[in-house]
């Protein structure tokens, strides 16, 4: 009987971890407004927000689908010219890392 309890507890623990992992995967709006915060954008660009950066590049982005439709190479070049990052993924990784650090404080 104690083994069944241990297994149930383990399964409950596993479900909690899976929920936590899902919560750590940010959606597009969270990326735009929280992870790419004003502070982060001011430190690494000449813009106050990610939306402002996109508008400067004449990117019309009303949804995650719109954003994903931007060709990677084109957006990487735009990021190089308008931020202090070598590409979009590096910028996003840096912002996400700073966001996680702030959550742990």
Estimate the strand proportion: under 5%
Radius of gyration: 19 Å
Q: Give helix and strand order, one letter per element, not per position.
A: HHHHHHH
Give the helix/strand class: mainly alpha
- The tally of structural domains comes to 1
Low-confidence stretches: none
In round numbers, the mean pLDDT is 88
The biggest beta sheet reads: none
Number of continuous helical runs: 7
> Which overall shape is indicated by the principal axes computed on the Cα atoms?
elongated
The percent of residues in helical segments reads over 70%
Q: How many beta-strand runs? A: 0
Distance between the termini: 41 Å
Organism: Clostridium phage phiMMP03
Protein name: Putative phage protein
Keywords:
105 residues, mainly alpha, 7 helices
Structure description:
With 105 residues, the protein is mainly alpha-helical. The chain has one domain. 74% of the residues lie in helices and 0% in strands. The chain has seven helices and no strands. The protein has helices at 2-24, 28-35, 38-44, 50-56, 64-68, 72-82, 88-104. It is elongated and about 60 Å long. It starts with a helix and ends with a helix. This is Putative phage protein.
In short:
This protein has about 100 residues and is an all-alpha fold. About 75% of the residues lie in helices and about 0% in strands.
Write the layout of secondary structure elements.
Layout: H1 2-24, H2 28-35, H3 38-44, H4 50-56, H5 64-68, H6 72-82, H7 88-104
